């Protein structure tokens, strides 16, 4: 029987993103996983099919080959969705770990992952920075070197044979659960460590130095492999995920690789034109304000934005001018403005304030229609 199209297997479009592929694979795997469908040969075959499809499409090189040649790209020893694909454990870890009762050796293969939120100023996020953080976590017990045994002697559990789980049969239902004798560790200790009481781990404030790459943005996560919680005796530690939160800035707002800011200008500058200096993250720049500039006009400064961790070039800075109404006028200034305002009469007013004139015409027409 011919193989189904990998995109059809996962139910995604051919231009699906990496995240779309991962979500689709999770749905497919959840539906057909053998632990959810014990004894169902069709479900097992479907599970293998979606696993093979994901292994190919999640690998950039294999996906390009598949898009170009289909399944023929992996015939005659050219590779394919078999060994050597992406590590599926990362996906299964957060899907099946707590659903199918695999609480034994399978669920205890590593320590728990740890999350940490790091707040940064915009300047720090754009330029990159190295920061020290303190994390309350579980670390390997030093006196017993993480074994949990005071004398270093660890024995294989006689109940589960070191597997860490036992299978219980009740009628037609079979259940897998953590071994009650060893608590899922697969090992037993005769002489527990007095410091960790046989757990092999103790609570501690862990101090780390974290390098934040230049260009990170809100919601970006940095993975530090092996810096999470220490695992049970004989298992590796989990990972640390540092999530970036960028504080609001007094001047700039970030939108991807671009920055935005408001630049207040005086009425005289807007009417007559001027050159003003504006701040950037790397110093100052100049923008030329043409005569008769209105509030809201955007000025684009190329390359004055942000170079994110995902791009090769810097974004732009967009300056939006705001014509500011003067306050705290002196008597002389007020008199000058009154004389200026007195010149806006009749057609002169329409000539110098076309938007106001258009608005007033619209209002008059509206009232005429309402009263007719």
Automatic annotation (TrEMBL):
- Paste the cofactor note: Binds 2 Zn(2+) ions per monomer.
Q: Which residues bind Zn(2+) 2?
A: 157, 160, 179, 182
Outline the residue ranges of the record's CR-type zinc fingers. 128-205
CXXCXGXG motif repeat positions in this chain?
Answer: 141-148, 157-164, 179-186, 193-200
**Annotated positions binding Zn(2+) 1:** 141, 144, 193, 196
Q: Where is the J domain?
A: 5-70
Q: Name the needed cofactors.
A: Zn(2+)
User: What GO annotations for molecular function exist for this entry?
Assistant: ATP binding; heat shock protein binding; unfolded protein binding; zinc ion binding
Its predominant location is cytoplasm
A GO biological process of this protein is: DNA replication
Query: Metal-binding: present as a keyword of the record?
Result: yes
Instruction: Tell me the ranges covered by the CR-type domain, including all copies.
Output: 128-205
Q: Which domain of life is it from?
A: Bacteria
Provide one Gene Ontology cellular component.
Answer: cytoplasm
Q: According to its UniProt record, where is this protein located?
A: Cytoplasm
Keyword Protein transport carried by entry: no
The family database entries (InterPro entries) matched by this protein are listed as: DnaJ (IPR012724), DnaJ_C (IPR002939), DnaJ_domain (IPR001623), HSP40/DnaJ_pept-bd (IPR008971), HSP_DnaJ_Cys-rich_dom (IPR001305), HSP_DnaJ_Cys-rich_dom_sf (IPR036410), J_dom_sf (IPR036869)
Cross-referenced PROSITE patterns, in alphabetical order?
A: DNAJ_2 (PS50076), ZF_CR (PS51188)
Tell me which UniProt keywords the record has, alphabetically: Chaperone, Cytoplasm, DNA replication, Metal-binding, Repeat, Stress response, Zinc, Zinc-finger
* Domain comment in the entry: The J domain is necessary and sufficient to stimulate DnaK ATPase activity. Zinc center 1 plays an important role in the autonomous, DnaK-independent chaperone activity of DnaJ. Zinc center 2 is essential for interaction with DnaK and for DnaJ activity.
Q: How does it assemble?
A: Homodimer.
Role played: Participates actively in the response to hyperosmotic and heat shock by preventing the aggregation of stress-denatured proteins and by disaggregating proteins, also in an autonomous, DnaK-independent fashion. Unfolded proteins bind initially to DnaJ; upon interaction with the DnaJ-bound protein, DnaK hydrolyzes its bound ATP, resulting in the formation of a stable complex. GrpE releases ADP from DnaK; ATP binding to DnaK triggers the release of the substrate protein, thus completing the reaction cycle.
UniProt record similarity statement:
Belongs to the DnaJ family.
Protein name, per record: Chaperone protein DnaJ
Organism (species): Pseudoxanthomonas mexicana
Q: Gene name?
A: dnaJ
């Amino acid at each position: 029987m011919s193989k189904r199209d990998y995109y059809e297997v996962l139910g995604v479009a051919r231009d699906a993103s990496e995240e779309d592929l991962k979500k689709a694979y999770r749905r497919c795997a959840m539906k057909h996983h053998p632990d959810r469908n014990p004894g169902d040969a069709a479900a097992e075959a479907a599970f293998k099919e979606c696993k093979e499809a994901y292994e190919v499409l999640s690998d950039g090189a294999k996906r390009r080959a598949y898009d170009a040649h289909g399944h023929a790209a992996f015939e005659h020893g050219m590779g394919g969705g078999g060994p050597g694909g992406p590590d599926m454990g990362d996906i299964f870890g957060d899907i099946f770990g707590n659903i199918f009762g695999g609480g034994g050796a399978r669920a205890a293969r590593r320590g728990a992952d740890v999350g940490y939120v790091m707040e940064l100023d915009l300047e720090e996020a754009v330029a990159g920075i190295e920061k020290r953080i303190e994390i309350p976590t579980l670390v390997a017990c030093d006196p017993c070197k993480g074994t949990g045994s005071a004398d270093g002697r660890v024995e294989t559990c006689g109940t589960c044979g070191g597997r860490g789980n036992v299978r219980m049969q009740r009628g037609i239902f079979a259940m897998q659960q953590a071994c009650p004798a060893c608590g899922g560790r697969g090992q037993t200790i005769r002489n527990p460590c007095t410091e960790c009481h046989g757990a092999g781990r103790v609570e501690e404030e862990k101090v780390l130095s974290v390098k934040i790459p230049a260009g990170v943005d809100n919601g970006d996560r940095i993975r530090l492999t092996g810096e999470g919680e220490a695992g049970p005796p004989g298992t590796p530690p989990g990972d640390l995920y540092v999530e970036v939160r960028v504080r609001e800035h007094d001047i700039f707002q970030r939108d991807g690789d671009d920055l935005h800011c408001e630049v207040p200008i005086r009425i005289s500058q807007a009417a007559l034109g001027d050159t003003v200096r504006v701040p950037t993250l790397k110093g100052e720049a100049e923008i030329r304000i043409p005569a008769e500039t209105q509030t809201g006009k955007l000025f684009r400064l190329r390359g004055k934005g942000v170079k994110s961790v995902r791009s090769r070039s810097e974004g732009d800075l967009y300056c939006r001018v705001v014509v500011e109404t003067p306050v705290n006028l002196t008597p002389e200034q007020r008199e000058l403005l009154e004389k200026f305002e007195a010149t806006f009469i009749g057609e002169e007013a329409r000539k110098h304030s076309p938007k106001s004139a258009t608005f007033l015409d619209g209002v008059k027409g509206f009232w005429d229609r309402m009263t007719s």
